[in-house]
């Protein structure tokens, strides 16, 4: 639609948009949605419940209030994600088992694989760092790929196997910690940094890693979560008996499951989701207190992370320890401007952005009762939450780079690189801020603004039951 100039054009465009919306509403009323089992969704961004009509493949339904995606229907059914996850698993094996890089200096030649990174970290006594690297670049992706294949193969064959629902939940959770794409960036940064120190040849693992990143992103795009859950329902592999009717309108006490998104009325005895077995909570439990704790811990550790060296380059017997900021300065001094910008952004700006962003969201949420403040930029804050939750993983690029450099440059007296204690603190900051974002429930911001009805109004709620919101005390 062409937008006209001036107020008359704008008014016409607005009228056209309103007309289009009215037409969509009329079409929905004339043809009530059929075909999908659970059509009422609760928005995980704002808590608004709404009917999502049956979507065509490739379509996405967004929340009318905050714009968060409610349901995305992927094209390609089960076959496409299954094929892509199997391909991912094969590439993953190549990435871990073949040569990553051949480095040489003064006639000494080293072949390194990806395993050398964590191994060298353990050798230097930095085992927490080795554990974090191994978990995010090996264990979590492996668990995710195997879990997805375990669920998708029986779904394709129409077979019921034990544990489909918990395995699918677990695989999705592992996806948060699987950081192969960040590892690829870490390899790239390490490769560029080493350019003038040693001679390097790239091995097959690097190409496989590049390919793996593309295939994994594609697989995640092709996976239709709700379709998988409905497939699990059809096979009867759910945790309990899933009710046929959507509970909306039937019972105001229905709760949206954080694990699978199903709205159901919690059972009096066990209070678990009938589809996936997750414990049902109207809002993430103790969200405010837990998020504050992780934000505080992250903020405190941010100081040693920047004060202590993350890397020491020992060349001809002389050591040069450098901090995160020092590393950026070195890159600037060697005229690697784009790389300096990247490291500055990922390692210095992103953690600060996350801590401040979450701090603001928490503070405003605790101002329940003050309508003007709690409604200020509510929609933008909800979008900010999802950005904060997504961006944090990219800070791991520094950790992966340090782990690789430590493994690649071990040439005795000629040149060695040792990751420092600052890297351990920095890694803790990254993991703590990821956890903080996971514990925060953005729906609480809309509750605090009084937009989710009396049931979720923080000042009316019994503090010992239901979703925990710390009310600022009047004193
Ligand atoms: Zn919403
Ligand atoms: Zn569930």
From TrEMBL:
Protein's organism: Enhydrobacter aerosaccus
Transmembrane segments: 82-105, 125-153, 174-191, 197-219, 291-310, 339-362, 383-401, 407-435
Entry GO CC: plasma membrane
Keyword NAD: no
Principal location: membrane
Protein name: Paraquat-inducible protein A
InterPro entries, A to Z: PqiA-like, PqiA-PqiB_transport
Record's subcellular location: Cell inner membrane
Cell inner membrane found in the keyword field: yes
Keywords: Cell inner membrane, Cell membrane, Membrane, Transmembrane, Transmembrane helix
Domain of life: Bacteria
